[in-house]
Design brief:
The chain is mostly helical and 143 residues long. It has a domain of 60 residues. It contains 4 helices and no strands. The longest helix has 19 residues. The N and C termini lie far apart (61 Å).
Length: 143
């Protein structure tokens, strides 16, 4: 197929005209979902082992995980699968919540509803060529 052939191709010709449209999300923005659905729904005893920061959006890892949870929640909400919502709770929410709220998690310095900024993981860039597939690794000393 040449570029000219591709330009003349109707990309919509194979679409199923009888397919139902995908419903709009209940919450367009994940932060609305957090404020209007998640935080009013979730009730946990907050302790030194289970943490939550009211300024959750100040923690990049938390915000990214909550955005992912929101996408999964929206998909489960409109799914025809009978166990989609249960799966979301068990395999998505619970897994993320354990890390988000853990004493050693991204909000570990936030206590009593007060936000404290945390530092990201330290990192030193690898030397040039370190990940080159033809590189022969140095032997590891076992002494």
């Amino acid at each position: 197929m040449t570029h000219a052939d591709f330009d003349d191709t109707d990309l919509d010709e194979d679409l199923d005209d009888d397919a139902e449209p995908i419903p709009d999300p209940q919450f367009e923005r994940f932060e609305d979902w957090v404020e209007q659905w998640l935080t009013p729904t979730i009730a946990r005893k907050l302790t030194t082992e289970t943490l939550w920061c009211p300024q959750w959006w100040q923690h990049p890892e938390v915000a990214i995980r909550l955005a992912a949870l929101h996408r999964g929640w929206e998909a489960a909400r409109i799914s025809d699968e009978p166990l989609a919502q249960s799966s979301w709770w068990v395999y998505h929410f619970s897994a993320h919540w354990r890390d988000i709220s853990a004493a050693n998690g991204p909000m570990h310095k936030c206590t009593n509803g007060n936000h404290t900024t945390t530092k990201a993981l330290p990192s030193v860039p690898a030397p040039d060529g370190w990940f080159d597939p033809t590189r022969t690794p140095e032997p590891v000393s076992t002494v």
